[in-house]
Amino acid sequence: MTLHLCNPSAFSSLLLPISTSLLSLTTTPVYNFSASVPAVYRLTAPAISYTNLSFCNVTLSYTHPGQNDEITIEAWLPTSSPNATANSTAPWNSRLLAVGGGGWRAGRFDFSYEGMKGAIGEGYATITTDAGLGFSQTSREWALLSEGNVNLYHLQNLGSVSLGDMGVIGKEITRVFYGKRPEYSYFNGCSQGGRQGLMLSQRYPGLFDGILAGAPAVYWSEAMAGFQWPQVVMKELGKWPYGCEVSAIGEEATRQCDGLDGVVDGIVSDVGGCLNSFDPFEMVGSEIKCAEVEGGTVKITEGAAAVVNKTWHGRETVDGRWVWYGLSPGADLIVNGSGLAATNCTEGKCVGQPASIGKDWFELFIAKSSTFNVANLTHKEFDRFAQASKQEFSSFVETDDSDLTEFRSQGGKMISWHGLIDQLLSPESTERYYRDVSAVLPDIHEFYRHYEVPGLEHCFGGPSGNPTGLLEQLRAWVEEDVVPEASPVEITKPDGKLEARVLCPYPQKAQFDASCTDPTAARCWSCEELPRSQLVT
Ligand SMILES: *[C@@H]1O[C@H](CO)[C@@H](O)[C@H](O)[C@H]1NC(C)=O
Ligand SMILES: *[C@@H]1O[C@H](CO)[C@@H](O)[C@H](O)[C@H]1NC(C)=O
Ligand SMILES: *[C@@H]1O[C@H](CO)[C@@H](O)[C@H](O)[C@H]1NC(C)=O
Ligand SMILES: *[C@@H]1O[C@H](CO)[C@@H](O)[C@H](O)[C@H]1NC(C)=O
Ligand SMILES: *[C@@H]1O[C@H](CO)[C@@H](O)[C@H](O)[C@H]1NC(C)=O
Ligand SMILES: *[C@@H]1O[C@H](CO)[C@@H](O)[C@H](O)[C@H]1NC(C)=O
Ligand SMILES: *[C@@H]1O[C@H](CO)[C@@H](O)[C@H](O)[C@H]1NC(C)=O
Ligand SMILES: *[C@@H]1O[C@H](CO)[C@@H](O)[C@H](O)[C@H]1NC(C)=O
Ligand SMILES: *[C@@H]1O[C@H](CO)[C@@H](O)[C@H](O)[C@H]1NC(C)=O
């Protein structure tokens, strides 16, 4: 095979965007690299394992002069095939696959590294950026320049600018290293990464040919307010239920709504139907097992039912006006003490336990204070905070622009997907975005498709596996004009058995053929456009 030069001098002809200035560049040849990456880390591709892969690790730091930032981009460029033997050929598949971040991270953390291992295993050159935010899980280290002053350049880098840079620089790196730019460029991310994908389609159309946006934090301000909403409800009610009460209501909803779609498999596919048919208040007074209390049992309280009801129905203003979508019945609102409706109970007394992302957002970016406590906001103040979030930061972080005309005309293709039991971000937000785009561009199906994933939690987890066919389907759509239709997925039933299912491009839903005797077989499922249960809200 060709010997590529994995040393800094080989990159001396690298052309960076005029807005940037290179601070440092290191190259590390990596030999005999082995990896075993489960599908959950690849999000939209199957598990992969390999040995004896070699690649060039090019890591560069740059600044936007005057902005006091230092962004690090890390690219891995395959120089041998996986499981390489002496006669392997074509180490690079001529494509770039950029990998997104999660939470407050733009990328360049454990999760994105796993995605990159998967990518090089398939021959992609791959890249990630830290947006200049370092390695921290929270935004506390960088959000404030000083009390009252948000670090707007850092927020702008997270929101958009680092993504454009990554695409441009990534292509330039392959030009220098392999002697040609990628034939096709892709982006794969979930959550913050899903938001990044949408941002790329909206603000940098033409940069990526194909974009995968999982469980995107689209409508950022609504997402942040949604993180805090159950806590606001509890404060307003003056009731902080035990986690076990809230969990028991969700589990019962799953039991009662499971069969609404015609198949009992532990998964609620008909979310709207479940909201209409299952009343959490019917469980008030039921005795349940509860490890959090002495004696081990507790009766479900009115407060628990009210918190669940309001979390499912979504955010309202203090005067009762509905604002935004909630989470689905069956979504885990407690997540072992870190979920959106989590409380912290000691000796029978419970207090709220706000989830960290929304907490950071409201305390640091809206209150602009390192000592503010989001738990102290009244409902009225919270409404005002949610509004201020949009007023001040829409242009930095929002990805709600539904006019994808330019992305479409540049030939871009996009696939979004969202787990229906996402415990953080409402799947209906992504559905809403898809509908917003289709209102502007009725031929949306020609370039953008959305897949709902019943039984999948936020990005991964839950009874459903990941939509592992989507990366390959996106590639075939971009390169061969093969339009993605049904996509395979595997679910784990309550008894532990694995079953095949299909995922369908919205607004289609998977429909079980009742004449088919074997619900375990994917061939018994098809994608049909069915009337959707009207949601209560
Ligand atoms: C290559 O990696 C494998 C697995 O990690 C290891 O067993 C082997 O000794 C390594 N070979 C060389 C030449 O380093
Ligand atoms: C590498 O070889 C192993 C063992 O033969 C195989 O299981 C794996 O699928 C191969 N991986 C790739 C990417 O070819
Ligand atoms: C790539 O290089 C950077 C900078 O030296 C380093 O921090 C990172 O750990 C390297 N990654 C791999 C997989 O070698
Ligand atoms: C590992 O890959 C290299 C090519 O990068 C090849 O020369 C070598 O023979 C391979 N080693 C084994 C054990 O297959
Ligand atoms: C070397 O390449 C030939 C032709 O592509 C292939 O048939 C053979 O299996 C390869 N050998 C090894 C050890 O992979
Ligand atoms: C559940 O919440 C919705 C939306 O806030 C509200 O209209 C309804 O009255 C609530 N149900 C009960 C029984 O309180
Ligand atoms: C739940 O959290 C507790 C305390 O932090 C921990 O000990 C336990 O392992 C966690 N359980 C799960 C299932 O994550
Ligand atoms: C829960 O509250 C106790 C007592 O106030 C405190 O020590 C503990 O750190 C809290 N747990 C969490 C996860 O915040
Ligand atoms: C804010 O909340 C904290 C913790 O719940 C409490 O100790 C403090 O007194 C509250 N401050 C105000 C101004 O209400």
Automatic annotation (TrEMBL):
The keyword Cytoplasm does not apply. This is Carboxylic ester hydrolase. Pfam families: Tannase. Belongs to the tannase family. The lineage of its organism: Eukaryota, Fungi, Dikarya, Ascomycota, Pezizomycotina. The keyword Calcium applies. Residues 1-21 form the signal peptide. PANTHER family: CARBOXYLIC ESTER HYDROLASE, FERULOYL ESTERASE B-RELATED. GO terms for molecular function: feruloyl esterase activity; metal ion binding. Keywords: Calcium, Disulfide bond, Hydrolase, Metal-binding, Serine esterase, Signal. Its EC number is 3.1.1.-. InterPro entries: AB_hydrolase_fold (IPR029058), Tannase/feruloyl_esterase (IPR011118).
